[in-house]
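Exercise 7 asks you to align residues with tokens for two separate proteins.
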Amino acid sequence: MFDWIQMLADGLVYGLLGLEQHSRWGEALSFFIYDSIKILFLLMLITSLMGIVNSYFPIDRIRNFLSRNKLYGAEYLLASTFGAVTPFCSCSSVPLFIGFVKGGIPLGVTFAFLITSPLVNEVAVAMFIGIFGWKTTLIYVSSGILLGTVGGYILGRLRLEHLLSDWVKGVLHNAQQEDAWEEERLNFRQRLPVIGREAIGIVKSVFWYVIVGIGIGALMHGFIPTGFFEAWITRDNPLAVPLAVLMGVPMYSNAAGVLPVVQVLVQKGVPLGTALAFMMAVVGLSLPEATLLKKVMSLKLIAIFFGVVTLCIIISGYVFNLIF
């Protein structure tokens, strides 16, 4: 889907600028251009689509339905499963997170999506089958969905809505103040300019968060050697799983990008559960993601989110090591 963006980025970096392929600066700059265009495109597209949905679909009924707590946790499972079928990395999932929050979806349900979306996707599953086989793949996919479900449920029970940023609260307040009767009189063509202006406004408001976050990720992508991690997360270290998670957070990649690294780690004797915990930390938690989330969350909420997900990943890593 985004191959044309990668071709454009490589053409600019290696063709126009003349940087050497596979060099650190070349890899970092190509990564930066690719992810910047992709995420800004997704943000504009998803915000526009959510604007259309909010304009026509009774989103307040969905919000009320999900808030009645009559699904006994199924809403978290549904959101986590939806996250598993969307091919987004952690930073690409943030635009959808913004759209969900803006649409009034309960925060815990939204978190369930945000946790699972970068962990599991069809590309990663296909690669996983080829590298580790069906059994490991099924356990990995199931654990990724379970991780999102449990993490979203815990975060939802904590009632953290008051820790959303003032910007999100303002967006929600403005949405609640709109005249619904006046909206009903507008046809689709008349609503489009309003939806477009709103989408552009959201993109402008988060633009520098996106650029700074991706810039951090690009530098890490190009300059952090994988061999550094292999020396610390060995089979003999009882703290290897939490160390693997802590080492994975500063990195930034999608599941498909980090799977070859996981394969190398396992071949070098790193337990599979430890390697998978490292992968989950890389794709599910990252400093660039935290930078993007700063626009929609307070620092306290980001810390709670990262803390809960980190704990769930560490537990899953130890469980994987027991199974395999």
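Second protein for Exercise 7:
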Amino acid sequence: MNQGRIWCVVKPTVGLPLFLGAVAAISLIVHFAVLDNSTWFAKFIQGG
């Protein structure tokens, strides 16, 4: 693993949950932005 030295600076018990939380937050933000800016989603939610 060529990035193994990062765990000398950041503990895995802190770094992994932080990394996974950031990935989940970015995913939710991207999904919300796509659904908010699409033309069909609002019609779908309203039943159209």
